[in-house]
């Protein structure tokens, strides 16, 4: 209850009281829909038939159930969707948990071959799935994020008792800031402490060196792989050259100024003062910021008051690349702290695929790539932006080739293959 109250206060700070209440009302209504559909006999018969057909297929080697309230149909496709799509292509039957709140899926929907969207909030569907899986003699896994604070430790242990292995994706520093709470939520903390002891039935995927070091120090290298974030390379190379931008962004383009861009979250780890410094030192550049407000830090920073800083809000994943393609320089202006030291910024790989010069602050996971220019202070950040703007694709072909190589070396399919190989090796022990 304390965690939920803390989260509620955080949501009010982020959205305001009215919007927060609307979201909570929508969430409650979605749960009522789940209850209604749980007793829909006709629907449940259709679901039974669909699940039977899916499970009869022989083109999969293992079953993975992604458990989370993350949802599928959200503005930005993130790691969960990408990894699930890639695992499904690699002979894994993936059941991806959605919610009626995010996806309007009441029960079961086959999204692609070997990828099923399933509403486990519908108790009948959940019971039906796990009952049928008891009779399937193939390796079975529950996949969760380290940041998941819904699943209780007892539920995790029950899965193991029933023959499931756990894929624990350790994706971020265990930090209350990321949870939007005053303290680390109990469910997150308890699961983290448990996986450090349970080496046999928990397989761990880490996305940053700092996280790998933490696991190796506390439980060793058993059942551990490194698979940072990645990119759908072909998707980002397919730009819609005829895309019609809204007036606000078109006005920025019409100014013919160099565009320094960023997209992603706006939170306490975003360096607003760095943006202010760039804007004031280089008024001849436009700074375009696209993404989601994670908290109220953007408003507090007041950087939107600067004439050459433009916050556009969120853009859907399907069209975001068209905006980013107009950036002259792509950036990741994060402060350096425990959170960002353990972060694998997904956007850097998408920037690479776009073939755009990249300037970031000195994050450990960014230092690994030749295509990323690292700034150790605000003065150097501006200098590197200036340098990037002078790049010519013909004269500096080696740099642009490096961007392409780094992108191709970090596709989502390659990340999923690392995870899938770990599962196969475990099964062959």
> CATH-wise, what's the superfamily of the largest domain?
Glycogen Phosphorylase B
End-to-end Cα distance: 42 Å
Strand content is 15-25%
Q: Overall 3D geometry?
A: globular
CATH architecture of the largest domain: 3-Layer(aba) Sandwich
CATH class of the largest domain: Alpha Beta
Strand order of the largest sheet: 3-4-2-1-5-6-7-8
Number of strands: 14
Helix content: 40-55%
Output the structural class.
Answer: alpha/beta
Give a quick precis of the structure.
The protein has 429 residues and is of the alpha/beta class.
Description:
This protein has 429 residues and is α/β, with parallel strands linked by helices. The chain has 2 domains: 2-230 and 413-427, 3-Layer(aba) Sandwich (Rossmann fold); 233-410, Glycogen Phosphorylase B (Rossmann fold, 3-Layer(aba) Sandwich). The chain contains 20 helices and 14 strands. An 8-stranded mixed β-sheet has the order 3-4-2-1-5-6-7-8, with helices on both faces. The chain has a 6-stranded parallel β-sheet with strand order 11-10-9-12-13-14, with helices on both faces. Helix 1 crosses helix 2, helix 3 (41-56) packs parallel to helix 6 (123-133) and helix 4 crosses helix 20 (412-427).
